[in-house]
TrEMBL record:
Top-rank lineage group of the source organism: Bacteria
Protein name as it appears in the record: ABC transporter substrate binding component
Pfam families: ABC_sub_bind
Length: 279
């Protein structure tokens, strides 16, 4: 596993804030059999216009060079389910059938799987993909998160003898991930201090209740816990208690986390080319 460490910057009165990008060796989730012979045509559906998704697409475009693969069109779904359905239906009715479809982000992956059952689909940039039933004979994909083992290994290096790791989560969304983390934590001699919430408004009080019990806060990709509001609230409370935040999200780092372990997005875009023999 290649790791890229970018220099930490020190800010007055604030804990070190930095970046870690892990170029992960992603694994195939399932296999789509080879179907193509001549020029291979691909269309791309992007869930919305964000930098990470664009980096993944750029990596895919670079990987296609010299491989007899033509990217016909990139469709942006604007992060809106109804607009996405309209665009996808339009593509089905007016666009020649491609040899394969690349989806970027969860919105694109779930809707394309629903509407294109007969075309090979490769998804990427979907965190916790197991939650979204992205399985079938025509679909495969790239895991877009660092393993819990990788995350805790980095955290162990940073925390040293400190062992109490707090995590706030919605059991309806990330129960499985936290259960896995509980097992992995024992391997690192960590004490995982878990707090459940079911609504965004509960996050602030939940965090305040554990700040005196933890040495660091582990922020996981849980849409109940991570919102525009909590991206302001969580760093503020944690700074008041001089605790580090550890995350898999670059957005959390920008909001004030100590460090993030996240995929190399460009490399994520290159990886789909290895999942199909036609490539």
């Amino acid at each position: 596993m290649n790791q890229k460490f970018i220099q930490f910057e020190r800010h007055p009165g604030v804990l070190l804030i930095g970046w870690v990008a892990l170029a992960l060796l992603f694994q195939t989730i399932s296999f789509v059999p080879p179907l193509f012979a001549a020029e291979n045509t691909v269309i791309i559906f992007r869930s919305q216009q964000i930098a990470a998704y664009n980096e993944a697409i750029q990596g895919f475009e670079e990987g296609c060079e010299g491989k007899n693969i033509k990217i016909k069109t990139i469709y942006d779904l604007h992060g809106d389910t109804e607009e996405a359905r309209r665009i996808i239906q339009m593509v089905k009715e007016t666009t020649p059938k491609p040899n394969a479809i690349l989806t970027v982000g969860v919105l694109a992956a779930t809707l394309v799987k629903e509407h294109f059952p007969g075309i090979p689909i490769i998804f990427c940039m979907v965190i916790n993909h197991d939650r979204f039933n992205l399985q079938g004979t025509n679909i495969t994909g790239i895991s877009s998160e660092a393993s819990i083992e990788d995350q805790f290994a980095v955290l162990q290096e940073i925390l040293g003898p400190h062992k109490n790791i707090g995590v706030i989560y919605d059991p309806s969304k990330t129960r499985k991930m936290v259960a896995q983390a509980t097992v992995v934590a024992k391997q690192f001699d960590f004490n995982l201090v878990k707090t459940e919430v079911i609504q965004e408004k509960e996050v602030e009080s939940a965090l305040k209740n554990i700040t005196n019990k933890i040495d660091a806060l582990w922020v996981i990709p849980d849409s109940t816990v991570i919102t525009q509001n909590t991206l302001k609230t969580i760093p503020r409370i944690i700074r008041e208690h001089r605790l580090p935040i550890f995350s898999t999200s670059d957005a959390i780092v920008k909001a004030g986390a100590l460090i993030a372990v996240s995929p190399n997005y460009r490399y994520t875009g290159i990886q789909p080319l290895s999942l199909h023999k036609c490539y």
